[in-house]
Amino acid sequence: MGLVVGFGVRGIRAIRANRVERHRRSMAWASFFVVAFLVAYLCKRIVLGGEDLGAWTLAARLNLYVHEAFVVTMLLAGATAFVLGRQLASTRRVTQSAGDPPPPPQTLARHRLAGRVALACALLGFVTACGILGGMLARA
Ligand code: HEM
């Protein structure tokens, strides 16, 4: 998740410097690491099974549920940002060519909002993941 946050921050910095291609590539890498994380998580669930939450403190369980909520919100908002980003790809905001159609302001605004929500949730998901890891190490 640290890589997702890292590439997400790089992507935001890129678009603020008006480097659209760098933004697109950074967000594609962030999306790749989200998918890689999901595949690794599913493999772990299939091979090792779920965690024995009976051994977890209440605070650790609450942290886990909050973490899962951030991850689900990140997935939904990130997918929305991705779809809206694809809709912007053929507009002059991305192509930088005056001959191409202007981007619909609503699509820009929704893309920005969805992207910011996804990145905020990725950051909070990362912070809560550190708490989960800390708890696992303490129980080991
Ligand atoms: C999951 C993938 C993506 C995420 C999470 C994302 C996230 C964001 C965020 C957070 C912003 C606002 C930055 C700010 O705070 O100023 C933004 C802006 C922008 N993004 Fe993305 N983005 C993604 C994919 C794409 C793609 C594929 C394209 C198109 C090739 C794209 C094109 C743009 C453009 C043109 C802006 C500037 C909008 C404006 O002028 O207001 N994004 N993106």
Question: What is the secondary structure topology, with strand pairs?
Answer:
Elements: H1 2-16, H2 20-48, H3 58-88, H4 92-95, H5 105-139
Bound molecules: protoporphyrin IX containing FE (HEM).
Protoporphyrin IX containing FE (HEM) binds next to α1, α2, α3, α4 and α5.
Task: Describe, in plain words, how this protein is organized in 3D.
The chain has 140 residues and is an all-alpha fold. The chain has one domain. It has 5 helices and no strands. It has helices spanning 2-16, 20-48, 58-88, 92-95, 105-139. Helix 2 (20-48) packs across helix 3 (58-88) and helix 3 (58-88) runs antiparallel to helix 5. It is elongated, with a radius of gyration of 18 Å. The model has no long low-confidence stretch (mean pLDDT 95). Bound molecules: protoporphyrin IX containing FE (HEM). Protoporphyrin IX containing FE (HEM) binds at residues 11-12, 15-16, 20, 23-24, 27, 31, 78, 81-82, 85-86, 88-89, 93-94, 108, 111-112, 115-116, 118-119.
- This entry's quaternary arrangement is single chain
Number of strands: 0
Catalogue the ligands. Answer: protoporphyrin IX containing FE
Q: How far do the termini sit from each other?
A: 22 Å
Domain count = 1
Structural class, judged by helices and strands?
Answer: mainly alpha
Roughly how many Å is the radius of gyration? Answer: 18 Å
Tally of helical segments: 5
Largest sheet: none
The best one-word shape is: elongated
